[in-house]
Amino acid sequence: MSKHLVSGLGRVKLDRLTPRDVHAVLRVALADAERMDLVPRNVAKAAKAAKPPALGRAERRAMAPEEAKTLLSVLTEDRLESVFVLALATALRRTELLGLRWSDVDLPGRAPFVRQTLQRTEYGLVFVPPKTHRSARPLPLSALAVRALEAQRVR
Q: Which domain holds residue 47?
């Protein structure tokens, strides 16, 4: 299955489409259809000056403490337990969590340092620097997170 709208038409992956991209692709497709007499007119021309619809920002609900405890109890001894503990304890983004290396974690100092992130590109998964200099930061670790990382290191 193609990850792009139409190969050769655009390099925008489906999960990265914006309303502006969709409007532009639709306008071009309707212009082609109009030229080929498949439609009487390109209705997208009339909307050309209109601002594309704004995307609503989905609200994300934080996990309640009881939900977090339930999740962690299910993950006990799972190979990914430390990843979830670290996610809950630090609120790191998924790309930041997946970019962590042992050399980025100071267990005695109780702090991981975000020095790279793992991004999906057209070439596959690639480690890249954080987007901003403020993203490359140390974070305090809770005792629970330190224990989870120590157990992971032993595993």
A: 1-59
Stated as kind and residue range, the H or E segment containing 111 is strand 111-112
Query: What CA–CA distance (Å, rounded) separates 138 from 149?
Result: 16
pLDDT tens sequence across 38-96: 778 888 777 645 565 665 667 777 888 999 999 999 998 888 999 999 999 988 889 99
Same domain, 79 and 144: yes
pLDDT in tens, 127-145: 999 887 777 777 889 999 9
Residue whose token pair is 């990843």: 83
AA letter at 56:
G
CA pseudo-torsion sign 139, 131, 23, 51: positive
Residues 89, 14 within the same domain: no
